[in-house]
Amino acid sequence: MKLLLTGAEGQLGFHLVPYLARLGELVTTSRRSGDRPADLTDPAALSRLLDAVRPDVIVNPAAWTAVDAAEEQPEAADRLNRWLPETLADWCRHNGALLVHYSTDYVFHGAPGRPWTERDVTDPVSVYGYTKRAGERAVLGSGARAVVLRTAWLYSACPGNFLSAILARAGRGEGLRVVSDQIGSPTWAGSLAEMTADLLRNDLARPGGSILHAADRGCMSWHDFAGMAVTMAAERGLIDEAVPVEPIDSSQWPQKAARPCWSVLDVAAMEAACGRQLPTTKQALSACLDQWK
Fold first, then answer.
1. Residue 19 is a catalytic residue
2. Residue 215 pLDDT > 80, yes or no?
3. Cβ-contact 6, 63 below 8 angstroms
4. How far apart are CA 151 and CA 134, in angstroms?
5. Quick check: 103 pLDDT over 70?
6. What is the average pLDDT across 226-251?
7. Which end of the chain is more exposed for a tag (fewer CB within 10 A), N or C?
8. Phi, then psi, of 274 in degrees rounded to 5
9. Helix residue ranges, H only, 159-265
10. What is the DSSP letter of 243?
11. Which is nearest to 4 in space by CA: 14, 24, 139, 12?
């Protein structure tokens, strides 16, 4: 089996590489690195890449993830979040390949009083959320053999995410002010990579496509997660000492793009698909921090 991994230089791509390499011949790509560097927003470059590699499986974590910047650059966000997965799905349909694509909790809005299921109605409230939902629709409507994995609050030891940012500040001894009225399911990129490998081993994707919620088991605010991370990092000697973490309302941290107030995902279907219980937020964060150095 030959696998093509897009976005290989991102935090999810980084964690996917060792898992996918065990499943077959892995070819990686990103804009500036990988086995076959390519600009995936360029139709000609993308076509050359696909025709040269001719993968049996495409794993696509490549995306526009700058939520606030998407409000000012909607066309660029749409290119990566809707056009790219649509084009990959079309290629997969014509070539009998499988597509694994990643989406987000930002397709939801509101607070149903329970975790969101795969059957719940979507209602994105940001350009980022709209473009990711458009990507879901494109993949599911393509007729390709595909699975869309919705995840939430992805973090890792890589630069450029919530966890690495708060621990960098804590490491400098700076106190933190963190939103306490947004509730979700923090998910380690390593957990999501392992779930992906489980699905590929079990060959669960079907023609017509399906959606699964892929997140660590948890329900907490950004403030709760930050407090847990700072405490656990101090215990491991990753920072000198735990710093104060002050809870604030979203109104005290204004951002261009609206965020869902409730991002907790129901992962029962994913646990059934993987044949195991997924890790809790605390278990996954512990594993992430144990690998930090």
1. no
2. yes
3. no
4. 16
5. yes
6. 97
7. C
8. -80, -20
9. 162-171, 189-202, 222-235
10. P
11. 24
CATH of the domain at 198: 3.40.50.720
Whether 244 is in a domain gets the answer: no
Cα 35 to Cα 32, 49, 127, 253: the distances in Å are 10, 11, 32, 40
Evaluate whether residue 231 is within a structural domain. Answer: no
In angstroms, the CA 191 to CA 195 distance is 6
Please check the confidence at residue 203 and state whether its pLDDT lies above 80. no
Q: Which two tokens stand for residue 188?
A: 């380690």
Our count of domains for the chain comes to: 1
- Distances in Å between the Cα of 257 and the Cα atoms of 69, 75, 106, 260 are 8, 15, 11, 10
Tens digits of residue pLDDT in 28-55:
999 989 999 999 999 999 999 999 999 9
106, 128, 130, 155: the catalytic one is: 128
Name the pLDDT band for 207 (thresholds 50, 70, 90): low
Task: State the number of CA atoms in the 13 A half-sphere of 117 facing the CB.
Answer: 6
- Determine, yes or no, domain membership for 254: no
| Stated pTM of the model | 0.96
With cut-offs at 50, 70 and 90, classify the pLDDT of residue 205: low
Looking at the domain assignment, is residue 283 inside a domain?
Answer: no
Domain limits at 118?
Answer: 2-155+186-216+264-278
